[in-house]
Amino acid sequence: MSTFSDLGLDERILEALHSEGYRTPTPVQAETIPALMSGRDVMGIAQTGTGKTAAFALPILHHLAMKQPASGRPIRALMLTPTRELAAQIAERLRVYGRHLPIYSTVIFGGVGQSPQVKALRRGVDVLVATPGRLLDLHNQGHVDLSEVQHFVLDEADRMLDMGFSKDVERILALVPRKRQNLMFSATMPKAIGTLAGQMLHRPVEVDISPEAPTTDRIEQYIAFVQKGDKRQLLIDLIEGQMVSCGIVFTRTKHAANRLAKQLVKVGIPSDSIHGDKSQTARTRALASFKKGDVFVLVATDIASRGIDVEDITHVFNFDLPNEPEVYIHRIGRTARAGREGLAYSFCDETESGYLVGIQQLLGEEIEVLEDQPYHFEKARPKPGQRPGRVKGSPVGGRSRRGTGRGSGMRRYNRGGQKRSDGGNRSGGQRGGDRRNDDRKANNRTSRPGQKSDRPNRPSGRRPPQHNDRRSKQQGRSNASNRQKSRRQNQRRDDRP
Ligand code: AMP
């Protein structure tokens, strides 16, 4: 199956895809579309960036267009997603894919006034994209009738449960007819998702697209061992040294995201934060400025970052290591979109070494150490044979812990995307100790991390992706003073013992 026309989709959909420049189906589309076209349920393991939206949107639009309702315009397809951003993106894609079809869709989510949403529902829609809370809210007020839903999509099911929506999902499932086509997409398969799939899906076709395969292969990953108090300066050095103009920084808490974004702005790096406590308007504005290139660095928490689909992201910084290894994969997958390369820098302090062990087990290999940086802190390195997970004094994330891979239902992949036959159980010890020593000798110890001319520990050959157009736009505006500040910082650093 190599083209969209082979999939039997309506001509009007093919026309829309053609205008979008889609030539061939992505793997998740090639597997999911035929199953949905034949009326089967699907359990898909795939995340944002794989083309999964079109995988479910196209066959559903096709079915809806083939069979118009006898009267009125009842909601015939319901797409449930955990975040507003994702909901908005799905709705936008539906409009694009269905633009030649007489199919109406709308999106409802919380955090904004409900009256425009109610108005849209009154006009009648075929497809409703919704987040669970607002959907139940409007249903309770009598604005939503789900009794004629024929297609039900649960997107990002793992995130949905993580965010505490499982009861809401159950309630919604009780509102849709029993006879319907179901599709569930999840990036990971923890036990709870298996249970939910068992309840929701009828003999599903299983589609397993490991997103790690295409993405991590093109991402250069580095780990920096550092003390908590030095993380900020190391981040600033890396951002400035590599002229980052489209990067995401992940922090564990919303408060940290806010504070860090402000600190970056103070040193002249255009930044903003995006997290669940910000109003929808503020989040949309931050994302728009980031996409436009006015904001170089977006500091985000995990949940808020889901659904951010910006193709130019060159750098991902894990300011805090996630306590769930699969989250690491999601985070770094924000870069290296659309065939590009990307860089991922992760900071590991003494309390996070166990998280690193878990991440490396999931990756099936160890991450290159960025040793030649002025804040290197050897004690943060995992001890030989250290077990994955929390060490004494580790911060615990706000979400439930799900295990570290082994026995947690999570699949393991190496960088080529193959499932590991040995269970991926290499410890967090070190790879290539000799090579590291050689690197150390070869490198000038005074070099700065991420310095353009002399980046330490960069494996030979590959150049970092640099998007200087965004930079140059801003540079004229503010960089003279930034350079001064940066020089002052370098001076301060040189004074360090
Ligand atoms: P998604 O995983 O649905 O968020 O899609 C990720 C990105 O891939 C979106 O920007 C889509 O527009 C794009 N995309 C999806 N399917 C295709 C395709 N077959 N060819 C080219 N781009 C695609």
Task: Chart the SSEs and their pairings.
Blueprint: H1 11-20, H2 27-37, E1 42-45, H3 52-66, E2 77-80, H4 84-97, E3 105-108, H5 115-123, E4 127-130, H6 132-140, E5 151-154, H7 157-162, H8 166-173, E6 181-186, H9 191-200, E7 205-208, H10 212-217, E8 219-225, H11 231-241, E9 247-250, H12 254-266, E10 271-274, H13 280-292, E11 297-300, H14 302-305, E12 315-318, H15 325-332, E13 342-348, H16 353-363, E14 368-369, H17 433-442, H18 468-494
Parallel strand pairs: 1-6, 1-7, 2-4, 2-5, 3-4, 5-6, 8-13, 8-14, 9-11, 9-12, 10-11, 12-13
This protein binds adenosine monophosphate.
Adenosine monophosphate (AMP) is lined by residues 22, 25-26, 29, 48-54, 309.
Structure description:
The chain is of the alpha/beta class and 497 residues long. Helices cover 39% and strands 12% of the residues. The strands form two sheets. Strands 3-4-2-5-6-1-7 form a seven-stranded parallel sheet, with helices on both faces. Helix 15 packs across helix 16 (353-363). The termini are far apart. 46% of the residues are buried. Bound molecules: adenosine monophosphate (AMP). Adenosine monophosphate is lined by residues 22, 25-26, 29, 48-54, 309.
Cα separation of the termini: 62 Å
Helix content: 25-40%
CATH architecture of the largest domain: 3-Layer(aba) Sandwich
User: Any idea of the CATH class of the largest domain?
Assistant: Alpha Beta
Radius of gyration: 24 Å
Per DSSP, the total helix count is 18
Q: Determine the CATH superfamily of the largest domain.
A: P-loop containing nucleotide triphosphate hydrolases
- The global form is globular
The CATH topology of the largest domain, please?
Rossmann fold
Ligands (ions, cofactors included): adenosine monophosphate
Low-confidence stretches: 397-468, 475-497
Strand order of the largest sheet: 3-4-2-5-6-1-7
**Approximately what portion of the residues adopt beta-strand conformation?**
5-15%
Q: Kindly report the average pLDDT value.
A: 79
Instruction: Determine the structural class based on helices, strands and strand pairing.
Output: alpha/beta
Number of strands: 14
Overall number of structural domains: 2
Q: Major beta sheet, specifics?
A: 7 strands, parallel
